[in-house]
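Attaching the record inline, Q. Sequence:
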Amino acid sequence: QVQLQESGGGSVQSGGSLKLSCIYSGYSRYMAWVRQAPGKEREAVARIVDNGFTAYADSVKGRFTISRDNAKNTLYLQMNSLKPEDTAMYYCAARPQGAYTQYWQETSQYDVWGQGTQVPSPH
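Structure, as predicted:
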C-alpha cells in the first residue's frame, strides 16, 4: 500500500522559489501535486507518470516542475517565480495503477493522499 509524506513548505519571498518533497512507500504509476487554497476547490497542478511523462496546469506551466526519483522514493515539486495566488496547502497524491487518462486534473482519481504541506503567501 502506498503511503505519502510531504515536506518543504515554508516562508518565501514573492518571486522566489521553493521545493516540495514527498517521500513515498510502495509503487504508484501516477503521482501528482494537488493544492487547495482556503475557500477554494482542490486543484491538481502537476502530474508525472512512472515513465517520466509530465503534465501541468496552465496556472503553473513554465514556473513549476514535477519530478520523481524512484531510487530515493521521492516526488518533487520545484516552484519558481512564486505568486500570492500560489498560496495553498499542497498535497502529494498517488494513483497506483490504471489506464492512462488525459483528465489528470480530476482529483477524485487519486487514491492515496499525503497530509499536506503549507505554502504561505509570499512576502
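The first strand starts at residue 3 and ends at 7. Residues 67 and 95 are 16 Å apart (CA to CA).

More tomorrow.
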